[in-house]
Amino acid sequence: MDSVTFQRQAPLSLDFLIIGAGISGLACAYSLASSGHRVRILEALPKNARKSCSGLRVPPNMSKILLEWGLGDELKAKTRPCRQVVFDDLLTNENVGAILWRDEVIAETGGDFLLMHHGDLYEMLLRIALEAGVEIKYGAKVSQVIPGKELPKDNPPHRTMNSCGTTRSPSPICSYSDPATSGSVTGHGPPSVRLSHGELLTADIVIGADGSRSMVRELLLEPEHDHGVESGYTAYSTDVDIKIMDKDPILKQLVNDQNWHIWMDDRRSLLSYPVGRDGKYAVHGFCHDDIHTKGTSSLPCGKPSWETEYPKDKLLRLFSDCNPISRRLLEIAESPIVLARHLVLPRCETWVHDSHTIALLGEAAHPTVPCSNQSIGMCIEDAAVFGGLFSRLRSWDQVPSLMEAYQDLRQDRAYAAACQDQSNAEITWLPPGPHRDARDAAMRADKQCDIGDFNERMLRDQWDTVCEVFGYSASEAAANWWVGWGMLAEMAKRRTGDSLQIEMTIAPQGIFV
Known about the structure:
Helices cover 34% and strands 24% of the residues.
């Protein structure tokens, strides 16, 4: 299953600071470090304090990146393939419809649709990031991010050659005095990050991978920007032990079920699916504040993130009237139950600071519905594209164009995916009425199609439906931009100076530019 892609080494190596050691931060750190850059991650939580509860879906556009990163064997050991989404009524358990992805269509994407535990993915990315040389500073709460001054193109800082023949950015050096005295910060103009206890860290580029409520995003937006609104929905996640399910007469039917189940109701839904090979079953619940108000369960306090725990008895009250299978899943769910509030934010138009020294990545750039289909996939794509672009860095004057290319390549796609995930979620939350009736009628009509009668036209139609999302290749997107724009700019620049040089890399799979 392994399909390791040759990792090019950047001719010019920079020093990166990434804020946030979640999935986005680790993925970006690995993508950069594996191409020769120096990467440090700042994580506010103590080591081993991050909660990894419940599961996630790995769509083909994401799994193919993990395969390229050499994680094929671990994916095979830690995931389960998924081919069908089943839609049922939350109250009655009546089947409404299903979506079946044909093996031929999934194979054409170059990846696979997998189900796995969040903690397993986290550990995989943590391991390969550390092996690539990434440093992680835990308990490093960031209080301020200070943009750098764009370095003059004709006078870049001195660079030293490393043993591999690539040019290295020197360890950033700055003059710092405590803000309690003079507050001065001087140096050659790189961006800086101040920690809560006063320590100042600098790098060539700072990346904000600090989640949907990103402090780095606030720096990039106008002071009067739209801060978003609470959607009124809270997402809950937990695990169920499959061994317990196997002994339960109500849940036994789900033990060998590879499907992803979605139970739909008025402003509520419940998702469940098996994760990995270690006997866990993931459960996600969504509930609107109105349901809390009608019941006896109190609303979550403050702005809970995935580090916030919620009492199981309160969650059970929110879903007390649902069908026996769904209710039983929640009754035997393992603690902790973690939750996150859904914040609806407008499209973030600025991912890159004017200085080209700070960028947003993952949900810091494109927040979406918690536990949604592409919430993790888009973060991994961001990391692969960013690293792919900066693996081609050979001079300082390329940095602005690479930063802008990153936003151009990722912004529209990530926003479209977030909108689709939002729409998909809202479809499962419809109240009784004509819209729900139309949804159910459409799903039931699709269900009438005999799966055994799939013909070439139907396969083609399904491919046309999923190819844009599932068939996307982040590494190809970065490479195509380089061939179509980046390399042409380099060629034009060199015509006026040095003799033309076209970089060719010999990879095990062949020769590529």
